[in-house]
Amino acid sequence: MNQRDPDQLTIPPDGRALTEQPRWRQDFPIDWPQDEYISRRDFVKFLLLTSLAFTSGQFWVLAQNFLRERNGQLPIHAITKLVDLPVGGSVTFDYPGPNEPRVLVRLDEQNLVAYGQQCTHLSCPVIVQAEAGQLHCPCHEGLFDLASGRPLAGPPRRPLPRVTLELRDGVIYATGVEERTV
Ligand code: FES
Fold it and tell me: What atom of ligand 1 comes closest to residue 126's alpha carbon?
């Protein structure tokens, strides 16, 4: 007798024998186990493609940053006037591209810092808590040190990218971005 692989058996959806099925179903039997097997295979394929797209995206961003830094292509961008930013105040801006949110904070009379505003865990926007000397990520309670941008608590492990600044004629400019791993 020809033993078929159970995964290859045709089982009508109502469970009755094939001979008891309507003519149309006998002519076009649906192989449910095979169908489910294909669904599983498609799902695994989907997962692999999604992971591949995500990884490629990460490499693309890293390559872009690397090329920009190597070629010194980052533009100089005026953020705000110093007089418009009180001590403890902050302002958000995009730099160097339109979808790269950054946050500038005035720590005291002399010191300014600016960081990427996207948390290094899963990219939620961080919020400045100047009095506490930290940046807070509300998504998973991540905390970064305001003076250094380094992670203090929660899931983030990498510091926030630092935007280099220059003060010229009372105007604060962004001049570059330092991607950091530690
Ligand atoms: S996205 Fe910031 S802690 Fe998770």
Answer: 2
